[in-house]
Amino acid sequence: MSEPPSLPVLISSARLRLVLVTPADAADMRAGRHQDRWHPDYPRRDDLDAAAMVREGDTWGPRHVVLGVQAVGSIGCFGPPVDGETEVGYGLVEAARGAGVATEALRALVAETDRAGVRLRAAVAPQNRASLRVLAACGFTELRGGDEDGNLVMARPLPATLP
């Protein structure tokens, strides 16, 4: 079995930097130690869950979503791809919502997973309209049904021609 492709250590967009959560960051998050470069409401409960997935050298793990100089949320995959696909998750502090940050972060990540030839899927609560809009805006058009938690599972087809 071949090694999965890597993603860039730093992924950037017009306003954002997607910075890998380091093992030291994850330890601080889990221990409740706040870093000055984090928004006062970060990490959220979901960010703490993501921090548990941090593995040294794994470019597929969680990343801080950095807007300006502060981390305002997290985005990342739930591990390296298996059979060319992996699941993505993301979330933002309340103050960063509604300004296109989640869409911009996911588009930046999708550009890199497309280059790597990896499909993304996401699970979203059916009542989470904001997240459904983000997924739709980023090309998650394939509905695969639901998961055991009642979430919709959506996937993003790879483009016909990769950049």
Protein model, in words:
The chain is of the alpha+beta class and 163 residues long. 25% of the residues lie in helices and 28% in strands. The protein has helices spanning 23-31, 45-51, 101-115, 129-137; strands at 10-12, 16-20, 62-67, 70-77, 85-92, 119-124, 142-146, 152-156. An 8-stranded mixed sheet has the order 1-2-3-4-5-6-8-7, with helices on both faces. β5 (85-92), α3 (101-115) and β6 (119-124) form a beta-alpha-beta unit. The two termini are 25 Å apart. The mean pLDDT is 95.
The topology string of helices and strands comes to EEHHEEEHEHEE
The assigned structural class equals: alpha+beta
Name the strands of the widest sheet in spatial order. 1-2-3-4-5-6-8-7
Report the uncertain regions: none
Gyration radius (Cα, Å) is 15 Å
Mean pLDDT: 95
**Overall body shape:** globular
Largest β sheet strand count, sense and barrel closure? 8 strands, mixed
Helix content: 10-25%
Number of helical stretches of at least 4 residues: 4
As a percent range, the share of strand residues is: 25-35%
